[in-house]
Amino acid sequence: MKLTTRRRFLSAPALAACATRLAAAQPSQIKLGVTTDEIDEDVATAARFLREFSLGYAEVRNIWGKYNTAQPLEKIHGAKAIFDEHKIRTSVLGTAFFKIPLPPDTPRGRAVLDNQFALLDGAMERAKILGTDKIRIFAFTYEKGETPDAASYDRIYELVGEAARRARVRGFRLALENVGGSYVSTGAEAAQLLKSLHNDNLGLTWDPNNAGASGEKAFPDGYRKLDPARIFHVHLRDYRRAPDGKYEWCAVGEGEMDNVGQIRSLLRAGYKEAFTLETHWKSPQGKEHASRTSLTALLKVIAEV
Fold it and tell me: What is the pTM of this model?
């Protein structure tokens, strides 16, 4: 479905009225939310936005100017109180765990990993407060322009497996996101990792747009390689190829992503976890307007599912 660019210039009241009508048509089986800092890093502002659209889920990443894992626990309790007031549940806690270059197997590299596992411990504390058992993680990165070192994958799998074991002891699931610049950026790479690691609390934050921007035909090709039962969370938005051949984020409905087909396939496979709009597109009118515009379009997509 392609939507005209005219909707970018709709007034806020017009978008809100449209959103109210569409939210009422949202299929009950779809748990939809937004990454809160793509609305505003102020939790109360983001919560009010979500309730305006009758949404009950939030993916938490940056709050009040810092990554949630860098905020003291009293701030996390404060965020939980705001979410409770607005009847919003945290669908997944976003972290930057393992979103770093793969450290060498040296004393200095092992110290880096110790810090990463300390970050995971802190994330589990914060996830417990926010009432979610899902934590978003990654599978290390490599420098732009480099070719991923195939010999590194065994070590990456070992470290991700260790993280999953530590999380399982405390009752948490790890939802590893495929992202550009990572050793796991596509559906094919995610499928290989999951086939190599059988931890039942390790799954995927499936981001088909990241896979598409990495050069894969994310849906249906990349998705077909995945075990839907191992998909714990899903990111939605849109992307397109720019005139210079590079990929860029855009408002939902103005790019290449078949969101209708992807959502339908997941629901047919029995997917019952949450979807998150992770807007990414930069509107000249600011990020709340970008999320409002894309969410209004996404609700139209969901109405077709």
Answer: 0.91
Q: What is the DSSP string of the chain?
A: ----GGGGG--HHHHHHHHHHHHHTS-TT-EEEEEGGGT-SSHHHHHHHHHHTT--EEEE-EETTEEGGGS-HHHHHHHHHHHHHTT-EEEEEE--TT-SBPPPSSHHHHHHHHHHHHHHHHHHHHHHHHT--EEEE---B--TTPPP-GGGHHHHHHHHHHHHHHHHHTT-EEEEEP-TTBS--SHHHHHHHHHH---TTEEEEE-HHHHHHTTS-IIIIIHHTS-GGGEEEEEE--EEE-TTS-EEE--TTSSS--HHHHHHHHHHTT--SEEEE------TT-HHHHHHHHHHHHHHHHHH-
Q: What's the pLDDT tens digit per position in 196-230?
A: 999 999 999 999 999 999 999 999 999 999 999 99
Classify domain 9-304 at the CATH class level. alpha beta
